[in-house]
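Table S2 (text version). Query chain:
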Amino acid sequence: MTGSMERHFEHQLDQLGAMVQRMGGLVEQAIGNAVRSLVERDDRIAAQVIRDDAQIDQLELEIDQFTMELMVRYQLAARDLRFVMTAMQITTDLERLADHAGNIAQRAIELNAEPPLKPLVDIPQMARRAQEMVRSALDAFVNRDAEAARAVIPLDDELDSRMEAVFRELLSYMLEDPRTTRRAIRLIFVAKEFERIGDEATNIAEEIVYSVEGKIIKHAWIGDEDEPRG
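Corresponding structure-token output:
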């Protein structure tokens, strides 16, 4: 590439990163609003989360088109190609995250129609951790920072632990009073959605490590007899 073309290309890569970060910001906002609709028992907020999904879907299409144009227009070096392809994968992950937020909002509308089962403690904490993971992963993508991406991965352990705690607590409610079963199951579904959001954020972090280093770390134990399989 000529100097001017190279500068233009770098500008477009920055633009791509900004588009992904904007989509991530919308997803993070959707996650926050979904749990807020649950905690505050506000159907209007839940309905807004569901409506806003269309804007996230549209941005995914725009990013896909932009990345395809980059790949057609330029002969990308390996690292740049990984960055562009990772951006495409991350937008898919973010669209799934938005779907999880929409599912939470739908459960909130259902739960808001009934008396509250219990004060919500673990679920809002799961929401905050999930938002943090998404935000940190996207910052790592824009900064092409593999170490920051790696730091996201262990945070998923807290979501897994809280999911188990939520399940045990709500199971005790159902056993003590079967009339709570419907509300308890819906809250379990909500907690499960946040656990899945953590899994998606972990996937994004792993994809970023590949983008920066060309190293696949997903299922890294495969082929290593000394590593645990659990």
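Notes on Table S2: The chain is about 80% helix and 0% strand. Helices lie at 3-39, 43-73, 78-112, 122-143, 146-152, 156-176, 181-213.
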